[in-house]
């Protein structure tokens, strides 16, 4: 991808911090991680507890603090809420949203999904139990990971991470995309966050937008495309 040459011309190291969303953990980034590492980037994968937004922002900020040099902060799904709040850190030079929520001030996942796009598929989220949410395992692959290898999609369904209602309701205070250059990858076959909703958030954030066919788990099914937009952000003069 030409990244090493671009980095050689820039004495400032570029670190990538990857933030996962709800129902999953950081292991889904493995394919993206492998590409970015092979292209010479320092990559950190955040493991957020996804219990409250406040805690997830704190964990992500610790990862940013530990990273070398400038940081490109990447979020998938609910991870977009986390990076919108944590991305105001001065080390963060740009943001990349991968089929992610990009809330404005005062918005949360709960408020963003309160009025779904007409005709959009309803995610198979089960009623909360003890304050935590899960997706229906039988419908997980179809809704979240339709283009992921069937055995891997089944494993993702079986290994779901409980998503706290408190995280879902966590409101962004000062969204980083208002001050930092942003990129957005729209997954056009997404059944969790409707593509039109993704396009609307990307436009509002004035993000450079790329659209590719893919499920909500596009970062798992098409790591090359995801790594490409992350490297574009890392090598852009806009990102410092």
Features:
240 residues; alpha/beta; Rossmann fold; six-stranded parallel sheet; two-stranded antiparallel ribbon; 11 helices; disordered N terminus; Sec-Metab_Biosynth_Hydrolase
Structural notes for this entry:
Residues 16-228 form the AB hydrolase-1 domain. This is Alpha/beta hydrolase. InterPro entries: AB_hydrolase_1, AB_hydrolase_fold, Sec-Metab_Biosynth_Hydrolase. GO terms for molecular function: hydrolase activity. The chain is of the alpha/beta class and 240 residues long. The chain has one domain: Alpha/Beta hydrolase fold, catalytic domain (Rossmann fold, 3-Layer(aba) Sandwich), CATH 3.40.50. The protein is built from eleven helices and eight strands. The chain has helices at 3-8, 30-38, 53-66, 79-86, 109-112, 137-144, 150-158, 165-168, 195-204, 218-221, 223-235; strands at residues 14-19, 42-46, 70-76, 92-98, 132-133, 163-164, 182-187, 208-212. A six-stranded parallel beta sheet has the order 2-1-3-4-7-8, with helices on both faces. It has a two-stranded antiparallel ribbon with strand order 5-6. Helix 2 packs across helix 11, helix 3 (53-66) packs across helix 4 (79-86) and helix 6 packs across helix 7. It is globular. The model is unreliable at 1-11 (pLDDT under 50).
